[in-house]
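Problem 12. The chain below contains 448 residues. Write out its predicted structure in token notation.
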Amino acid sequence: MKKPFYLLSLMGLLLVMSFSMQAQSLVIDKIIAKVDNHYILKSELEAQYQQYLQSGQGNTPTRCQLLESLIIGKVMLAKAEIDSVLIDDKKVEMELSSRMDQMEQQFGSQKNIVEAYGKTIASLKDELRSAIKEQLTTRKMQEKITGDVKVTPKEVRKFFESIPRDSLPYLPSEVEVGHIVRLAKVTKNQKEELIKKLLDYKRRVENGEDFAELAKLHSEDLGSGKRGGDLGFAKRGQMVAPFEAAALKLKPNQLSDVVESEFGYHLIQLLEVRGQEYHARHILLRPDYQKMDLTEPTSYLDSIRVLVQRDSLKFEKAAQLHSEDKGTQDAGGMLIDPSTRSIKMPLDGSMESGLYFTLDSMTVGTLTKPIQYRTEDGRTAVRVLYYKAKHPPHFANLEDDFQKLATITLNRKRNNAIEEWFAKAKGEVFIYISDEYKDCNVMKGTGQ
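Solution.
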């Protein structure tokens, strides 16, 4: 059996859900494997296999490889329970919110999502929430297993030299693209309405109502909301600056005024301070991102674009000074391929479709006009794209592709670490595999 695909990702979660629904109509679903209390369905395996087939990326893993990867993932979940590796509900809810925003952007409206999946938004959220929590837990276990794995330049060179010359990968065209992002602004009416609601909650608490009950009913931070807004103890510097500054000005049980942060608007109650930690709870209200004002950020970016086109301001400097995308700001606005951490991104089907088609209509060295954009965390924004460079397709070499080769080398070492971990961990949990897949030899050792 070929080396399985161990390193898992959240990126294809929605796509897998869609394929899973198709797969269930094509196969009679049944349990094909079980790890302690975690099950693997035939439709789940088929969904992942079909996803790889339709991705067009080549090197499609076999069903046996994918089954082994799924089983290892379930063993990680089982071991996470045994080893008390926990995921904060707040992280799950933040990821869920981002995924739902992406779906709404993709389908155009929540109504279209419901029609496409044949399920209510609440049902979809429940399914996604469970899947996201599993994947975040698996990712945390992967990090625990492979966190100390590193590669040296010597190892990268050794790996490259081990590849037969007639087997060197042929890399597609690559591009270097940057952007400057400005976030949409909350309208005056929206802001006033949210502040009014939070001040009303504050008045009601001061008049004797239970803060926790109001948070459960009204807070849009769903993770803490179901705990009455309780955020637990946080170390100084852990929370966003406006929240922490306001919380630490309070006395125990005192309520804040309305606090604005990048996440929305908060009503905060400090519960306790313990050394360098503090315990607070909050009610969070977010603006409706679909109704935010794009006028000011569009005008702002128009002005920046003119300066860059006149060469009065270099693009990289403009991004550092004016972009509100913290992830790319320090890098001069340059987008990064998440799989390789390189500013060179393959110009193929793996690229986000909106970006791909925009670049298709551009020439190197040009900027777009301001275009509407949805950030990774689901916020409405405007951006200008800069097409900095295009690199022709070529066979991989150390000089041009060192970072990619380093990533491949690192992933191979990480996979080896996971193989070694699995060889030990599989004896600590109950694993059942149906006879239909006995030839996969999953339990006879990995990498066969």
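Discussion. The longest helix spans residues 398-425. Students who got a different answer should revisit the alignment rule from Section 12.3.
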